[in-house]
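User: My advisor, Dr. K., asked me to get a structural model of this assembly before our group meeting. I'm new to this, so sorry if the format is off. These are the inputs:
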Amino acid sequence: MEVKEDLYYSRNHEWVKTDDDRAYIGITDEAQDQLGDIVFVELPQKGDRFNQSEEIGVVESVKAVSEVYTPVSGTVVDINEELLDSPELLNDQPYESWIISLELTDDSELDNLLSAAEYKSYCEGAQ
Amino acid sequence: MMPYLPHTEQDRNDILAEIGINSVSELYSDIPEEILLEDKLKLNDSLSELDIKKKMKELSDQNHDLTEYISFLGAGVYDHYIPSVVNHIISRSEFYTAYTPYQAEISQGYLQAIFEFQTMISELTGLQVANASVYDGASAAAEAALMSTSINRNRKQIVVSRSVNPESRKVIKTYCQAADLELVEVPLCDGKTNKQELADVVDEGTAGVIIQNPNFFGLLEDLSELSRPIKKAGAVFITAADPVALGLLEAPGNLGADIVVGEGQSLGNPQNFGGPHFGFFAVAEQYMRRLPGRVIGETEDKSGNRGFVMTLQTREQHIRRARATSNICSNQALNALAATVYLSLLGKKGLQTVAELSTKKAHYTAQKIEKLTDFKMTFSGPFFKEFAVSTKKDKTELNDYLHENNYLGGFDLQKEYPELQNSILLAVTEKRTIEEIEKLVSLLEAVK
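Assistant: The format is fine. Below is the predicted structure of the whole assembly, which you can bring to the meeting.
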């Protein structure tokens, strides 16, 4: 299982990458590995507003359907439409394949999230 | 000892000994004694097999069916001809199950039949994806309403025309109550959906709109025109259809429908005293992942042979639990199979012929009845195989008189539409002969 440095992690296995007041959100290597082959991704619309921990979309694999929650609050600036045609990108390159990008409402929320090291031990503890 | 109770006294004692108790009543020791029934159940003594057969025959003889009656009754369930082959094929033991088979992929033949069914429904409706069937036309309509709220997630209003089958509307109402949705009914205008009222009520809060064509009165609705305000508001356009009519009419999918549902009984299924029947359900491709129920897909095995699998199962309750968007987890396999066999026997041409004959005979019947002094057509628009007539005669006496003469008369519309006090709904299928139609007309004339 790969855990990338310099990202924030949630206990729901999402990652957050920040770039000024923009946040990119995706699912972790652990999440894609647990789900198996991903066949469909449901995305929100640009302009949608979400509070921390709200559902932003759905990832469907051959064996399960999982909700994706945003680890931080914000307004959707961009959605990764490439995933609609190539959902397998979430399996192949989980940390390059962001699902949405948000304009952050409150960057202090990042403090509630896990660091790479914390997330790694969280996953190990869960096994 | 009953032949159908397999356990002997010895078996029972062995089981009791194994679990360490002395009598069956000890299993109920948690139930307070004062509420236990101490008397024997008030049942008759058991009968021999011979006697029970006699008894059951007596009971079943109280039923009447369409081998004894000439039916002009429709209102959602129709007396179309069912070729003998249908029953022979669906009675084969390999096919004899009410549901999608368990361990579905073992039953490749059944899955292929369901796949063919989906393909036929898709062709008839003009929409890309059909499911393996649902319980009946009413639940199909209600599931479609629910599906529209999962497509339009922030919208809470369902709009249904009063010309939709009243039984479907009741099931839709039940669904809406449970799902906390607002249900609005669009009034009638000469037996059809009131276009102006529809345009007024549909807005950006409307998740889906349900229109039936031909509608409950057999009248043809203008789907293209009705679709305009629906599309403009971004609501899902749901149409309910008689599958036989689809042999003659343009596919609703080509007229703007996003979801097409309907009661499938007309296709190779008997009336069955009102059920079991089956509902069909087809959607435009972009809504595929919101489709309730089962879908069978075509695939290849590892040697490249054609095969069939259950597909898109991940949305169903056994995987998605509380987050499943629909309660439907199987299909009406045997009824849908009957429809598949029926459609494959008739072919495109055959279904068209059934639809044409029904229409022509219905129109012939209507013309004859209209000439009677005490009868007139209730509505003025074009109709398919069913039509409403208003009469000055007493409806109950009229239907009783027909019944005495082994004819089943019209559906009393006042039951569901209080304003239609003097109207009955008559259905004419391809099975009705000229003689039967003439007889109906003379009976209608003769009744006082």
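One thing worth pointing out at the meeting: Chain B has two domains: 70-80+348-446, 84-341.

User: Perfect, thanks a lot.
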